[in-house]
């Protein structure tokens, strides 16, 4: 075991999978010589060479389209999109092709593609660098969506994503790239895609989140002096609904927290599932604490947009209902 931050844990996962499997490739803007804008791919170019760590032009459709071609021909490409807000020009490739290949070919082809992208706010970045648009991919049949919140989870989930036969959108919360260090097993291991984690057990209220917001939920839970049960979804699709419902039946009160805009955010889907499966167990309406229905703001207004300071208030509201 060694203490690693999120960047180091992801880098270790990439090293181990590339060493283990020659079909694993990395491609994207500045991923090679420079080691990526956040240095997640640092050292890979030197060790595995330009044929397996490929610096691409500034062309997201080309990065993803090439990766799809590689994936259906026996490779396991890991395509890095430099920031999640740059992924939009590659939507056609992801949604029309990567997500549909298994169905289109009636199972003759699969697309073992991982699309990595730093996402979320909290670092005072520019436009198109901080939005959280995970729900677009959750809504798309054929895609899996994974968002880790800790270094140890990041390593195990990325290895699972690389080994998965279908396309995985792997969002990395850049706000905590270097903000958290924890013990990470240096040996290879996997964490199953589709399994949530209860990071704090409690009986009074269930708090559900993912990515960088998990840490903020833990902070809010401690400040509120309430016996919160905090769930880190880890995988948004497929969703571990059983862990959510079991917790709801125990606490009877729920707060869902995400950075994405409120309208049609994933919180709405979670609430719908709770209503379908555990409505009579609720002691209060489920509360959403989210970003606003606006474009992610520039640095001066960023703290107003982020849910951080509103989570504790949301917890108190459901308890006082």
Assembly context of the chains? single chain
Give helix % range.
25-40%
What gyration radius follows from the Cα positions, in whole Å? 19 Å
Low-confidence stretches: none
Number of helices: 12
Please provide the count of β strands: 14
Per the CATH scheme, the topology name of the largest domain is: Rossmann fold
Mean pLDDT: 97
Note the run of SSEs as H and E: EHEHEHEHHEHEHEEEEHEEHEHEHH
Tell me about the largest β-sheet: 7 strands, mixed
Query: Mind telling me which CATH architecture of the largest domain this is?
Result: 3-Layer(aba) Sandwich
- The count of domains is 2
Strand content: 15-25%
- What is the terminal separation in angstroms? 45 Å
Shape: globular
Strand order of the largest sheet: 3-2-4-5-7-6-12
């Amino acid at each position: 075991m060694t203490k690693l931050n999120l960047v180091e844990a992801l880098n270790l996962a990439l090293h181990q999978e590339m060493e283990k499997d020659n079909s694993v490739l990395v491609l994207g803007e500045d991923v090679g010589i420079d080691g990526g804008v956040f240095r997640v791919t640092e050292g890979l170019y030197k060790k595995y060479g330009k044929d397996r760590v490929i610096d691409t032009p500034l062309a997201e459709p080309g990065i993803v389209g090439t990766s799809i071609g590689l994936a259906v021909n026996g490779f396991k490409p890991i395509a890095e999109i430099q920031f999640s807000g740059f992924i939009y020009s590659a939507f056609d490739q992801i949604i029309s092709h990567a997500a549909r290949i298994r169905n289109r070919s009636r199972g003759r082809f699969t697309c073992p593609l991982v699309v990595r992208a730093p996402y979320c706010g909290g670092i005072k970045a520019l436009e198109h660098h901080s939005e959280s648009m995970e729900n677009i991919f959750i809504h798309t049949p054929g895609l899996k969506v994974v968002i880790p919140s800790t270094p140890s989870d990041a390593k195990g989930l990325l290895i699972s994503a690389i080994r998965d036969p279908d396309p995985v959108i792997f969002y990395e919360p850049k706000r905590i790239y270097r903000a958290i260090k924890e013990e990470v097993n240096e040996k290879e291991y996997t964490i199953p895609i589709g399994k949530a984690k209860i990071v704090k057990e409690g009986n009074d209220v269930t708090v559900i989140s993912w990515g960088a917001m998990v840490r903020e939920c833990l902070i809010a839970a401690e400040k509120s002096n309430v016996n919160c049960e905090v769930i880190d979804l880890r995988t948004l699709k497929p969703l571990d609904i059983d862990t959510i419902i079991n917790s709801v039946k125990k606490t009877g009160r729920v707060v869902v927290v995400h950075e994405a805009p409120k309208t049609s955010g994933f919180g709405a889907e979670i609430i719908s599932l709770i209503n379908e499966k555990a409505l009579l167990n609720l002691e209060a309406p489920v509360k959403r604490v989210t970003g606003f229905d606006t474009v992610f703001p520039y640095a001066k207004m960023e703290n107003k947009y982020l849910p951080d300071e509103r989570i504790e208030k949301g917890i108190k509201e459901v308890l006082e209902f």
